[in-house]
Amino acid sequence: MSDAAISIRGLSKVYKGGKQALFDVDLDIPRGQIFGLLGPNGAGKSTTINILSGMVNKTAGHVDIWGFDIDKDPRNAKASIGIVPQEIVFDPFFTPRETLENQAGFYGVPKHKRLTEELLRAVHLLDKADAYARSLSGGMKRRLLVAKAMVHSPPVLILDEPTAGVDVELRQQLWEYVRELNDGGVTVVLTTHYLEEAEELCDRIAIINHGRVIANQPTRELVGMAQEKAVSVTVDRDLVTPPEAVCFDKVELKGSRTLVITYAKDKVNAGEVLAAVQREGLGIVDVSTQEADLEDVFLNLTRQNNAASTVLGAGDGRL
Ligand code: ADP
Ligand code: MG
What we know:
Low-confidence stretches: 306-319
Strand order of the largest sheet: 6-7-8-3-9-10
Bound molecules: adenosine-5'-diphosphate, magnesium ion
Oligomer: single chain
CATH class of the domain at 227-290: Alpha Beta
Strand content: 25-35%
Number of helices: 11
């Protein structure tokens, strides 16, 4: 039995027609965290989530949810997660109250243990409890889906692109509720292609691209990579080895005259870096800087894709 909330090994998916959406994915989602699965459209996020929920059959690999193998123990595996799918699907003729009651019935939650009122209140839909689902706005429907995913009090809640069609205010309410659930011990997994969202909410972020996991780190570390800035300095003579200085995180020689120096922008500025180069007796002919914010980290990782795992594996955080 795995300690992880979700443990994925060697997961592959080839859809009918031959499209391969996942390639040998390994991923552990720790218990108790808010975990972000971040990636551009078509990366394989929903495929992964839909395999967890049993909506899509995997081609190869093993998945444990809360220690239950989805093949050997699908009942317990399913009981351990609540899923908010990317696509909103409802029977338009049920009210929010009925929707939650039906779902609770489906999971065999006895009447006296149902949380219908509590859930409706938590997602700010108590005043819409008896309205038809078709009369709800997009944001309300999504919040109802979150409540629906929680009727059986699963230890893991998965939200696939939860803020699609949700306005800013409601998004904040949704996040408040997600944080509350997490404070109460629920492990939360969300997929998104918005970096800011992942950065704001998640303890840990995995980045998936073209069906491969290309990064999986605490959010702090990923953001830390965004604190690195690189300056490219062309000097006035040929070098055999790059000069060293305490204010450099890393220095590389490109060709014989260009230095690519990485430094932490919260500790030193470009002027100090250049002064350090000059102290080595080198004249500066040309300078260009590049700054990495989380967006760049993401773009770099997704662009390099396969190479990126090596970069990250090396642990030097340079992009
Ligand atoms: P994401 O959720 O990250 O946007 P998806 O998991 O939905 O990505 O899709 C991953 C890839 O698999 C995409 O290329 C998509 O077109 C393809 N795909 C998704 N669902 C199907 C399907 N039912 N049949 C064939 N290809 C699919
Ligand atoms: Mg998707």
